[in-house]
Write a sequence for this structure.
């Protein structure tokens, strides 16, 4: 079992930055990839970024250059640095952990971009 807890969301003005954290606990040795997703009100959950256990990264094309995913293996934590935020980035942000045979999700953290 893997438990995930996201944090770092909040209210930010357009143009601002936030760093989200996703702390993993439990059987963290079994984690392969970790991902960030987001879900805006009334919309489907969309993939944002991925980081492998080796540290390779991938991003949704529309977010390249503004968002950066990273991980601290010693702390079992994955981060999402978000810059130049705009109102379209308002959403609940979720992290997930991919293991062999199962995917675990956190509870999400709300990000609101508004003036």
């Amino acid at each position: 079992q893997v438990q995930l807890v996201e944090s770092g969301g909040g209210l930010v003005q357009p143009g601002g930055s936030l760093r989200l954290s996703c702390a993993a606990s439990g059987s963290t040795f079994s984690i392969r990839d970790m991902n960030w997703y987001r879900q805006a009100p009334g919309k489907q959950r969309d993939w944002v970024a991925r980081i492998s256990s080796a540290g390779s990264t991938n991003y949704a094309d529309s977010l390249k250059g503004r968002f950066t995913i990273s991980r601290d293996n010693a702390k079992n934590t994955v981060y999402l640095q978000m810059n130049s935020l705009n109102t379209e980035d308002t959403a609940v942000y979720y992290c997930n952990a991919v293991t062999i045979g199962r995917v675990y999700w956190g509870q999400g953290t709300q990000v609101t971009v508004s003036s």
